[in-house]
TrEMBL record, chain A:
Functional description taken from the UniProt entry: Subunit of the oligosaccharyl transferase (OST) complex that catalyzes the initial transfer of a defined glycan (Glc(3)Man(9)GlcNAc(2) in eukaryotes) from the lipid carrier dolichol-pyrophosphate to an asparagine residue within an Asn-X-Ser/Thr consensus motif in nascent polypeptide chains, the first step in protein N-glycosylation. N-glycosylation occurs cotranslationally and the complex associates with the Sec61 complex at the channel-forming translocon complex that mediates protein translocation across the endoplasmic reticulum (ER). All subunits are required for a maximal enzyme activity.
Natural source organism: Thalictrum thalictroides (Rue-anemone)
Its membrane topology: Multi-pass membrane protein
Secretion signal span: 1-26
Alphabetized UniProt keyword annotations: Endoplasmic reticulum, Membrane, Signal, Transferase, Transmembrane, Transmembrane helix
Cellular compartment(s): Endoplasmic reticulum membrane
Record-given protein name: Dolichyl-diphosphooligosaccharide--protein glycosyltransferase subunit 2
Residues annotated as domain Ribophorin II second: 320-427
Location of the Ribophorin II N-terminal domain: 37-312
GO terms of molecular function: transferase activity
UniProtKB/TrEMBL annotation, chain B:
Protein name per Swiss-Prot or TrEMBL: Dolichyl-diphosphooligosaccharide--protein glycosyltransferase 48 kDa subunit
InterPro entries membership: DDOST_48_kDa_subunit (IPR005013), OST48_MD (IPR055459), OST48_N (IPR055457)
Subunit structure: Component of the oligosaccharyltransferase (OST) complex.
GO biological processes: protein N-linked glycosylation via asparagine
């Protein structure tokens, strides 16, 4: 307790030692200075086909970004851009914005424009300034004049009435430090504030005589007020954003912040005295730009790089960025703790001392494991380093608290180092796994039935069997490189049934050993009474453990009691999606088999046989000696008898036709006629025969 | 009032021009609403957005709490797809809410949803409605101590490198993704009974979902390869949904980052994220795997006209043309596993149809000897493809009475006997009447 108080006391003293208030952020993140990734991104984003961009503004943004990042592309761009610059400067219809962009491109490319041309443009711009009514007009024309002045040093361009111009711009400012775009009814905006400050800086540098000191002081006050609207991210970065989202000139947070940074840095560069802005806020702004990492659009990249270049060399305070090339340090590789202190654009910082104020485990914030270590500086690689091995740092996740101290105390006003920086560091190493064993115990006595040694450095293929009255015990030891007990984040024992039902157990540690006892009697319900083979798998893993592993241990054959009726069913297991799709088995229709028929010959033989009785009948008749003596002899009865038998023959032939081709209706119709005819002739024939017979009897 | 009616009529006239969703008639409409938490995402995920824009999509970026968000106007949807890159949003702006997202999807539109460890209840609920359950523990992240991405700036093994992709050329493109995909975010599980949702990127068997900062005593709810990192849903109405537990997966940083899996010596200069995200977005926005079937016809062998009815045992031919949308045009779809069924209550015939190179599928078979009302059915469900369900009804009749075989030799003895009896009868009548 007393020790804690001392620490708090010391810490508060340290706080006061520094004029800037340190940012103690819990969620620490690491900011890296501009790197080669930005260069490749710049080449990718500002990729113009044969050196031409859509506008002079974009050309300037590309040129400026390449210039800052040290990419040489001027030779490609100037043949296309220079004629455009000259054309814009000579054209009488060019507005201040176009002139401004042309001059900015000219400033970098040095197109070799005549001094006379500049003179002409300058006088035109001076006229614009006289009756300018909007902030953008002021911004563009003042900016252009400054560029011309830099271009032609011998020309004495001065703003005659710098005071009144200054006043006109200042009149657009608001009480909260923001600016308006125009005199009448425009919304106030933070983005405009940046433009205004840049314009004011231009006016100051163009002024023929010293400007009124009090006016500069008011502007400095405005800047301070503007910083009240500074917004903050959790990781300690600061940014400006527009309050009113819904204007036509809406800018995102990056361009707004970028505009303010440009304004402030250029204003502080031309005015005497220092603008009173805390160094940590400037550092926070730098962190905001760096936190974006590599932006995805050309505009964003320009804003980021240009602002960082403004911060790199400004008169308010120059942020220094502390970064670690690697935050994962391996004890087995004997990694050194390396720290770099650089400016935002990645150039070397002035001589500094880096101190490791404190290091504590993330799990135990109150007990630091290291305190007050000074890092050694290697001037060759400009890296501050510290060897952790002799300091007895074991593996684990730590928060390292660094402080950067300037070796020259006089530079404290120039540089912002931002107090303490909290950086998470992961120290990793090899964990020794030993005395691993697995045993099946009898429930009552706890006596060991089977016990097997395990080698967890490779897959095991054990085969155990147990019933629900027994227990399974798995135990092993984990030791860290420094010989301490190591508790990994993940120690799982997984039992997987053949039906894919999985059960996961967290293996706890009792004292030095990791041990889990599975009492199957208490687990039968959880196991859904599923007997059979279970695959065992042990997973041990931790972010600090270099040899995290997942190992199959083998199988255990469980003999569990039958499931009672009300037992819960195992949950459905995911179906393999590949089996759900795919073609189905083909189905062919099985046609009905045709009925069995006798062979044709047989049918024909039987056909022949059916004629035999008829033939026998005829033979019988002949043998009996039949005659036709009763056939009427007179003409009319004979005709009727003949017709009668012809009719009968016709009916029988009709049957034959019915079989061969006729349908039922035709047959019945014909039969009807034939029937009537037959009835008539039959009646006549039969009555004739009857009368002949009666006569015979009577005779 | 007059103005109103003019407006009303013009809007009615315009109705057919406004497209509802991905339709086979207007597949080139590609308006997408992108909802962001922070406009910075537009810049930090620009490669992904740019790849969409280069493929012809019109992206409309809005903040998720913008009060002016609306998906439809006058009953017509203004967008064909929705990208929710706003994991932490608790309430959308305007009248846009959970129900309208679901309605949007229900009407056949596509959705890409990315969450991360800050995922709000609203985002979780949307994912849940789509069939993916994010880990309920809001502080949990997917951790993998054996297949993490080796990195100097990340030490807690939450940046996972996974190469356990779904084995489907249609979802992930025909070019194999060689480098592992980097993932940092939360995991989800899929309901095993839901057959619409597919795991595209799975975690390895040593992964688990937990808070990396705290110790736990009971096992985490999500472990092993059951954890899905990225899933897709293809709804029955062919709406497609992509659910990712990581928004960073789509970021420029991970697109550009190199990747080396723990325990492996191969170091890939570029992660598989860009290819993975681009190919997946192609699938989600129907640039791949969207099939249409046209010109379904059938006829008797030897004829060309489609009959109104078949007789049992007829031989018939069946044709169908299948095309796949390639993003710009309909290309012939050639596959050897399309099947047609001749179906009445259950399939009587199920046959694989063969295709020529122009996407014309042809088969022929014999009508079964069962009569009734049949259907030609093509039910084509393949992993990643939109399903084709074609059904065409056709009655099948039995033989007519005069269509059977007329003179059976086997029956000749019967005929013979009756005709010989008839002849006998004829002779008998004569003999009987006139014999003396």
């Amino acid at each position: 307790m007393a020790r804690n108080i001392v620490i708090v006391f010391l810490a508060s003293i340290l706080f006061f030692c520094f004029s800037s208030i340190s940012i103690c952020n819990a969620t620490s993140s690491i900011f890296n200075p501009v790197s080669f990734e930005h260069r490749s991104a710049a080449l990718e984003l500002f990729s113009a086909t044969d050196g031409s961009f859509t506008s002079l503004e974009e050309t300037y943004e590309a040129l400026r970004t390449f210039q800052i990042l040290g990419v040489e592309k001027k030779a490609e761009i100037s043949p296309v851009a220079c004629p455009l610059v000259v054309e814009t400067l000579t054209s009488p219809s060019s507005n201040p914005e176009k002139l401004f962009n042309a001059l900015r491109v000219q400033q970098i490319l040095k197109c070799g424009v005549d001094a006379d041309l500049f003179e002409g443009v300058a006088s035109k711009l001076e006229a614009v300034i006289k009756d300018a009514s909007s902030l953008l007009d002021f911004y563009h024309s003042v900016g252009s004049l400054v560029l011309i002045k830099n271009e032609v040093p011998e020309s004495n361009i001065v703003l005659g009435d710098a005071d009144s111009t200054f006043h006109s711009i200042k009149a657009l400012s608001q009480s909260d430090g923001r600016w308006r775009y125009g005199y009448s009814g425009a919304e106030s905006s933070t983005y405009a504030a940046g433009l205004a400050l840049e314009a004011l800086a231009g006016v100051v540098s163009l002024a023929s005589s010293e400007l009124d000191e009090s006016m500069i002081v008011t502007v400095k006050n405005d800047i301070r007020k503007l910083f009240d609207s500074l917004e903050k991210y959790d990781d300690g970065s600061f940014y400006f954003d527009e309050k009113v989202v819904d204007t036509a000139e809406h800018q995102n947070a990056l361009s707004t912040t970028s505009s303010v940074v440009r304004g402030i840095t250029s204003f502080s560069a031309v005015t005497p005295g220092k603008i009173d802005i805390p160094g940590d806020k400037i550092l926070g702004l730098a962190k905001f730009f760096l936190g974006i990492e590599v932006p995805g659009t050309a505009k964003d990249l320009f804003n980021q790089i240009d602002s960082l270049a403004c911060l790199e060399n400004n008169r308010v305070s120059i942020p220094l960025i502390i970064s670690l090339p690697a935050i994962v340090l391996s004890l087995s590789r004997k990694d050194l703790l390396k720290v770099q202190v650089k400016t935002v654009l990645g150039s070397d910082a002035p001589p500094v001392t880096v101190k490791l104020v404190q290091a504590y485990k993330t799990s135990a914030k109150e007990t630091p494991v290291l305190e007050n270590q000074e890092l050694k500086f290697d001037p060759k690689s400009s890296i501050h380093h510290l060897d952790l091995l002799p300091l007895g740092i074991d593996i684990g996740n730590y928060i390292f608290v660094f402080r950067v101290l300037l070796q020259d105390p006089g530079q404290k006003q120039i540089y912002a180092t931002g107090g303490q920086t909290h950086i998470p560091v992961y120290v990793t190493g090899f964990i020794t796994v030993d005395s691993a064993e697995i045993a099946v115990l009898d429930n009552d006595l706890g006596s060991i039935e089977t016990k097997k040694e395990l080698d967890l450095s490779k897959e095991n293929i054990l085969s155990l069997s147990a019933n629900h009255l027994q227990k399974l015990r798995l135990s092993f030891q984990l030791t860290s490189p420094l010989g301490h007990l190591f508790k990994p984040h993940q120690v799982f024992l997984k039992l997987r049934h053949v039906t894919e039902v999985e059960h996961i157990f967290v293996v706890g540690n009792s004292g030095k050993r990791f041990e889990i006892i599975l009492d199957f009697l208490g687990l039968v319900e959880k196991f859904y009474y599923l007997s059979g083979r279970y695959e065992m798998q042990l997973t041990v893993g931790d972010s600090a453990m270099e040899n995290s592993f997942i190992r199959g241990l083998g199988q255990v054959e469980l003999d569990l009691p039958e499931a009672p009726e009300k037992a819960t069913r195992p949950p459905p297991q995911p179906v393999d999606p590949y089996t759900r799709y795919g073609p189905k088995e083909e189905i062919m229709h099985i046609f009905r088999a045709p009925e069995k028929r006798p062979p044709q010959e047989l049918s024909l033989i039987f056909l022949g046989l059916t004629v035999v009785p008829f033939l026998l009948f005829l033979v019988g008749l002949l043998r009996l000696g039949v005659n036709l003596k009763n056939f009427p002899t007179s003409a009319i009865p004979a005709t009727f008898a003949f017709l009668f038998h012809a009719g009968l023959g016709a009916v029988l032939s009709l049957y034959l036709l019915f079989w061969l081709k006729l349908d039922l209706f035709t047959t019945l119709k014909a039969l009807g006629f034939l029937g009537v005819f037959l009835f008539f002739v039959g009646h006549r024939t039969l009555s004739h025969l009857a009368s002949t017979a009666a006569k015979l009897k009577a005779a | 009032m007059a103005n109103f009616s003019i407006f009303f009529f013009t809007s009615i006239l315009l109705l057919p021009l406004l497209c509802q969703s991905f339709s086979t008639a207007n597949p080139t409409d590609k308006r997408i609403l992108v909802l962001l938490d922070d406009l910075a995402i537009k810049s930090s995920h620009s490669i992904f957005f740019k790849s969409l824009q280069q493929r012809g999509f019109k992206l409309d970026f809005k903040l998720a709490d913008d009060p002016k968000i609306s998906l439809h106007r006058y009953g017509q949807y203004l967008y064909d797809g929705l990208i929710l890159f706003s994991p932490s949003i608790n309430k959308f702006g305007g009248s846009f809410d959970l129900a309208s997202v679901l309605e949007f999807v229900d009407s056949g539109h596509d959705l890409i949803l990315a969450a991360d460890s800050s995922a709000s209840d609203l985002i979780r609920e949307i994912a849940n409605e789509c069939g993916a359950d994010f880990d309920e523990d809001s502080s949990a992240m997917v951790i993998d101590h054996t297949s993490y991405a080796v990195s100097n700036s990340e030490g807690d093994h939450t940046l996972i490198a996974s190469d356990d992709f779904i084995n489907s050329n249609v979802i992930l493109g025909s070019k194999m993704i060689e480098a592992p995909v980097l993932f940092k975010g939360i995991g989800h599980t899929l309901n095993p009974v839901n057959s619409q949702v597919l795991k595209v990127l799975s975690a390895s068997s040593s992964a688990y979902s937990a808070n990396p900062e705290t110790k736990f005593t009971s096992p985490p709810s999500l472990t092993g390869s059951r954890i899905s990192l990225v899933s897709v849903v293809q709804a029955r109405n062919n709406a497609r949904i992509l659910i990712s537990g990581s928004l960073d997966l789509f970021s420029n940083r991970l697109f550009r980052s190199g990747v080396q899996m723990a325990g492996s010596l191969t170091k890939y200069p570029k992660s598989g994220n860009e290819q993975f995200a681009t190919e997946l977005s192609k699938w989600v926005f129907h640039e791949r795997g969207h099939l249409k079937a046209v010109n379904v016809r059938h006829n008797k062998v030897g004829e060309t006209d489609e009959p109104a009815m078949y007789r049992i045992n007829d031989d018939l031919e069946y044709f169908v043309e299948i095309y796949e949308w390639s993003g710009t045009s309909w290309e012939p779809y050639v596959s050897d596993d399309v099947q047609v069924q001749f179906y009445m209550m259950s399939p009587y015939v199920l046959k694989t149809i063969s295709a020529d190179q122009k996407g014309l599928y042809y088969t022929s078979f014999k009508v079964p000897d069962v009569y009734g009302v049949f259907q030609f059915k093509v039910e084509y469900h393949r992993l990643g493809y939109t399903s084709l369900n074609l059904a065409k009804q056709i009655p099948v009749r039995p033989f007519r009475h005069n269509e059977y075989e007329r003179f059976l030799t086997a029956a000749f003895p019967y005929y013979g006997s009756s005709f010989s009896t008839m002849a006998g009868f004829f002779v008998f009548t004569i003999i009987y009447l006139y014999n003396k």
